[in-house]
Write a structure and sequence with these properties.
With 151 residues, this protein is an all-alpha fold. It has one domain (2-72, 90-147): Cytochrome c/b562 (Four Helix Bundle (Hemerythrin (Met), subunit A)), CATH 1.20.120. The protein contains six helices and no strands. The radius of gyration is 18 Å and the shape is globular. Bound molecules: ascorbic acid. Ascorbic acid (ASC) binds at residues 42, 45-46, 49, 137, 140-141.
Length: 151
């Protein structure tokens, strides 16, 4: 019984250790995955933006939920930029794969600012949320400027 239980645990450990590329069946799947994650992240980040900009009334509980989801999403896209995933309909620029240190730094900056936005949302203080929202948006934009094709 105990041994049988260990098998799925061992498999899960193995899956986590596999190269990110191996977690997607096809390169196109990685593209779809990261685009889906950015879509969800932008939707929830945007809802906070609407409150910050006064387009919708501030709702502290909603902002907290949106920030939590956006923070979760912020952690996901970067395993989906493995070698060989610069394929198909992508807004990703090729320098993602040639300037990886800079791309990772930009990604980490966004994640750090998003985590601060999440902490600010938990306070329920709109001024703190506004400040953190601005810093997070700047981190999104900085990465887009360097690594996303112009729309
Ligand atoms: C958003 C969104 C982005 C960022 C970026 C910030 O709401 O969808 O991609 O903010 O525009 O400059």
């Amino acid at each position: 019984m105990k041994r049988l239980l260990l098998i799925p645990i061992a498999l899960a450990g193995l899956a986590a250790a596999l190269p990110a590329a191996a977690q997607f069946q096809k390169p196109e799947d990685a593209v779809k995955y990261r685009q889906a994650v950015y879509t969800v992240m932008a939707a929830h980040f945007g809802r906070i933006g609407a409150m910050v900009n006064g387009r919708v009334p501030f709702d502290a509980a909603a902002a907290q939920t949106d920030a939590e989801i956006a923070t979760m999403m912020s952690k996901l896209p970067f395993t989906a930029f493995g070698q060989g995933t610069n394929v198909g309909k992508t807004g990703a620029k090729p320098n993602i794969w040639t300037d990886q240190a800079k791309f990772t730094a930009a990604a980490t900056k966004m994640q750090d600012e998003m985590a601060k936005l999440n902490a600010a949302a938990k306070t329920g203080n709109l001024e703190q949320i506004k400040t953190a929202f601005g810093a997070t948006g700047a981190a999104c934009k900085a990465c887009h400027d360097d690594f996303r094709k112009k729309l």
